[in-house]
């Protein structure tokens, strides 16, 4: 703390020197909830902090003018310290707020390598960030970690028209084959385009679910199927859930209220307990349409489906909005408690009904929607403001319920800061301990996305 010039000499705001400072007001800016640190996770003034609360700041170095000079040399004009520009990267989709003072926007693997090599040698913590749409507090720093954004890494490196593979630099996470830069700056190239390769351990898989704690993904390969010639979307109202739903996206009746009220999206069919969105993509429009209509006819005759509508072209987006904008609609209720659960398909909705019964009228909404085909339920509960008593009723109930039925407490959103300490509900102690060993091996100083993914007893 005394070794380096104070942050004010950098023309940037001062930071809490250690630990967790109580939330203080800063001048609110548009899009900001106007608090100084990760208040959302801090547990407020409650005597026992929630397992989601941030742990104490670890003794990482603080950024100095010399550090900024180094970064500016590698990525001139892309080393950002302007608080107004930084703000968008310091606030995530759920309005978790962090207080980083440096945003780096590399464009190449080589730049990422140089940055990480330097940060590792200087013991500077780094928070990798892509689109910043994560929902578990993983993409924004907890304290003053440097934000390493891949937003400018958006180049197509090449396209192989035979295999249909695109190689890209990587602002996205949804792909399988990649180049990573390790914490010390070494570049690990797994960008093989082979479908089959059994030569030793498949190291790229290690990085799936690692949330930027093991390395920074800088390039990916995406396998692209041919663009379908015909797309049909059906929006159906179901009177019951059955195994046929496994191929469908779904939302329940309770989701319609916020969609109608807050986003003015009207239900295009009659009121039903459940709705499913199905999409067909094929090469023969007439054939595909015929097939879909035949399916609908059969489903309605057998009373599995009460009502439905089918769209092509322009109306497709409108139908998909009813599923895709549920998350957004719920934010207008006030505060949303979000759970992203994997369950055996036959259990998938039982959690919603049990939670409703458990909470009674204490919640504004308890809704279920998600990717039923993957056994993935998004259970969302809302209240007008964040309510610690309500939260205490939801957690650990939701996690215990999920563990009882061998589910996963995070199907696709990862663990981030918010859920790191709940990992034991879904993973055996030995598995978690091995994750800790891997982290120590690949990032011995722990500079990569600290406080995230792994539980506090391993950090
Ligand atoms: C409205 C809405 C709908 C959503 N629907 C879905 C859905 O259907 N399915 C789904 O899976 N998710 C969904 N999500 C969650 C989220 O958007 C996805 O998980 C998304 O893939 C996160 O990507 P991102 O680039 O925004 O990552 P970020 O939020 O920026 O980061 C997520 C995590 O990855 C790390 N990270 C980012 N970039 C890198 C990198 N290059 N190398 C290493 N680590 C990195 C970050 O440090 C962080 O821990 C939804 C979110 C919203 C807001």
Automatic annotation (TrEMBL):
Keywords: FAD, Flavoprotein, Oxidoreductase. It is an enzyme of class 1 (oxidoreductase). It comes from the Eukaryota. GO terms for molecular function: (R)-2-hydroxyglutarate dehydrogenase activity; FAD binding. PROSITE patterns: FAD_PCMH. Residues 1-11 have a biased composition (Polar residues). Residues 1-59 are annotated as: Disordered. Residues 94-170 form the FAD-binding PCMH-type domain. It catalyses: (R)-malate + A = oxaloacetate + AH2. InterPro entries: FAD-bd_oxidored_4_C, FAD-bd_PCMH, FAD-bd_PCMH-like_sf, FAD-bd_PCMH_sub1, FAD-linked_Oxase-like_C, FAD-oxidored/transferase_4, Oxid_FAD_bind_N, Vanillyl_alc_oxidase_C-sub2. Its cofactor is FAD. Its EC number is 1.1.99.39. One of its GO terms (cellular component) is mitochondrion. Catalyzes the oxidation of D-2-hydroxyglutarate (D-2-HG) to alpha-ketoglutarate. Also catalyzes the oxidation of other D-2-hydroxyacids, such as D-malate (D-MAL) and D-lactate (D-LAC). Exhibits high activities towards D-2-HG and D-MAL but a very weak activity towards D-LAC. Belongs to the FAD-binding oxidoreductase/transferase type 4 family. This is D-2-hydroxyglutarate dehydrogenase, mitochondrial. It comes from Oncorhynchus mykiss.
